[in-house]
């Protein structure tokens, strides 16, 4: 396995242009997400630099560009607020704890990749992902309304919603003007002037115009701005640990790791669709983990594969890890040379940019198709969305997965139940019988019950298996046909065992047909086969029916 996935020098020109374009798009987003997280704009830039560089080199999606994303920023904002609030007299220690959580999250992601968890993350149902991402989009929008109007936003979505009327009654005019101008630019420019948007992306144009406005038009404005941004090379910071806080730090780190994994692999699928290639999911998790670990060491925000930056990179010609790494190097050069200018960027402009990010994260396509979506999918999506916004992100995903699993098991059980056929009358069966088998069944006149199972049998159908048998009282011999069953689980084995015991305890003869090697091994382990009399197991259904007829004194003339 090569150290750097997909690296070659056959597309250097495209990679250079792709990396440059991605950096231009990433700059305002990284600044905005840094401010939104509470860790400061430089944390967003450092996150874009380190996650972007190392995820590009060691990840599994060659054309992917990584950095702070909306979902990761929402979680990081909660983590940063939580730990700095614990140490009001020493917020630096709280910040160090928050970045230690980022490091731990990165290590967990590396572990996910080494344990090959990637393929399981890709099994998360679409309604769960849709509700989760839409919920995060709503959180971002709600939390940015305050900064858009010139205020600091509460940390919790519900508190931010409750504060909106107060913000509107007492808005800061200059900030609101700049915020609305930003919204017009980021929404209108791509739609009305797509060629201009390709030359200068809407977020960057809004950033430039907003900064010029605060310097030239509103020089005395009270609209909040970024303020001083550190310049110079970033320096690593020692992780901080607090023993009694460590369990909570682990939980937060797992939240970051799981969310980053989902976010990154979704973007990897987008990249695959555009480039007609296939990513390596486990390697991608390792690369993201390395990037997040190093970002945390340098005080950077956690990140993931970023859809907008990845698409821009690919459309501009980027195809290899060179483009993602170059995007990070360009961001480092910009922050080293233009930190003083960035200090004048209005917070309202960054809030407007993030509101656009929030609306892009919402799964509008799902809402458009909601009339054609099964009710179970709608319930899952809405439950996850509401839990994401008002309760907790991990609880939302866990609840969605449990709901999806239970509904899936119910659907599978229903399918298994359709494959259970109880036959006493050969003319009314859904199971095809040979002419000789029909002759025997007709001669039995209901004294032989043929119980035919097909498809895998699991605990979901176990109760129905017993219930179907209980509907018949007058048979004298039971033929259990397992010829078409590829597997059984423990619960369905116990159901078969109970069926055999109940029939034998009332003096009925029981015969078993077929049974593939895997099924027979399971039945043998559970002691089911020991219940059968010698000679009551047959490879073919006709032989079992003949034996059953003979055992209860029925004679039949076969053709």
TrEMBL record:
One of its GO terms (biological process) is transmembrane transport. This is SulP family inorganic anion transporter. It comes from Sedimenticola selenatireducens. It is found in: Membrane. One of its GO terms (cellular component) is membrane. It holds the Pfam family STAS. Residues 447-548 form the STAS domain. Its main location: membrane. It is a multi-pass membrane protein. The chain crosses the membrane at residues 12-33, 39-58, 94-115, 127-149, 175-193, 200-218, 249-271, 324-342, 379-409. CDD domains: STAS_SulP_like_sulfate_transporter. Keywords: Membrane, Transmembrane, Transmembrane helix. SUPFAM superfamilies: SpoIIaa-like (SSF52091). It comes from the Bacteria. PANTHER family: SULFATE TRANSPORTER (PTHR11814).
